[in-house]
Here is the input.
Amino acid sequence: MQIPEDALLARIFIGENHRFDGRPLYEAIVLKARETGLAGATVLRGPMGFGHSSRLHTTKILQLSEDLPLVIEIVDSVEKVEAFLPLLDPMMTSGLVTLEKVRVLRYGRSG
Here is the structure.
């Protein structure tokens, strides 16, 4: 599978405790991305962050949070990422999605 050189990066910011249909939201999003044929998705767990409530979430022992920040990154063609975005609407009750144009230099094996 090849991603065009000019692609779109979607970053989805959610909390670790967010859920959809009884499973972690990050898992539901990654599985939906796979089901719809996107090139790939990566979940990154942050050691510290805050969102719209300004409540601090951290891994520090004295302030241990069970709702650490997560970022899901998806890179694919503009058309595929934009077609995926409406599928997030019923899944996300809160969170943030950012989009940016990216240049893909390499994907998979060549030759």
In short: The chain has two helices and eight strands.
